[in-house]
Amino acid sequence: MSVLRPFTCNDMFHFNNVNLDHLTETYGLSFYMQYLSQWPEFFEVVESPLGEIMGYIMGKSEGHLENWHGHVTALTVSTDYRRLGLAATLMKFLEDVSNKKMAFFVDLFVRVSNKIAINMYSNLGYIIYRTVLDYYSGDPDEDAFDMRKSLARDEYKKAMIPLSHPVVRSDEVE
Questions:
Q1: In 3D, which of 151, 145, 144 has the Cα closest to residue 67?
Q2: Does the keyword Cell division apply (predicted)?
């Protein structure tokens, strides 16, 4: 049986099996440490009975007033453990933390080419709020969907009303 537990500094030396996927953004150690120190409650791993990291989620809270929200910075599951519902479990965890923080919604960015992830998020109740042009730099530059899901505090689901001009440049993202 897998275990959901808080991410620790030592986990950074054991999560290569998860981060080697071409769709996973890999950051420098200082980036992970910043999240771990500023938003530890948003950083969890799923661990196998043998102690192997199966996946993790890293997020934060940000914004102000009705834009106060939880944000998924990274969610990834090792290719060996996909299609077991671990990503949905991790998303539920982050949504629960965001609800406790009195956030109005949770948002995330996903590559427009990542149809499997987009479908999963849609099945979890997320909508495509807008398209962010050239969000992912590299070879090739790729756009992202900004996907959102309202939480309990957003009783009228205002955060899920798509923009009238749903395409923005990456430098316009708040």
A1: 151
A2: no
How far apart are the C-alpha atoms of 94 and 88, rounded to whole Å?
Answer: 10
Of 138 and 114, the structure prediction assigns the larger pLDDT to 114
Pairwise CA distance, residues 94 & 92, whole Å: 6
What pLDDT shows up at residue 10? 93
| pLDDT tens digits for range 137-150 | 775 778 999 999 99
Tokens of 34: 């910043």
Contact 56, 12 (CB under 8 A): no
- Three-state DSSP at 123 gives helix
3-state secondary structure 132-154: EEEEECCCCCEEEEEEEEECCCC
**Domains within the chain, CATH numbers bracketed:** 3-171 (3.40.630.30)
Nearest Cα neighbor of 90 from 126, 62, 54 is 54
Q: Rg of the chain's alpha carbons, rounded to an integer?
A: 16
Angle at 21 between CA 89 and CA 46, to 5 degrees: 30
Can you read off the two tokens belonging to residue 131? 């398209």
On whether the CB atoms of residues 70 and 101 are closer than 8 A, the answer is: yes
Which of 69, 85, 83, 62 shows the shortest CA–CA distance to 149?
69
Tokens of 99: 């609800």
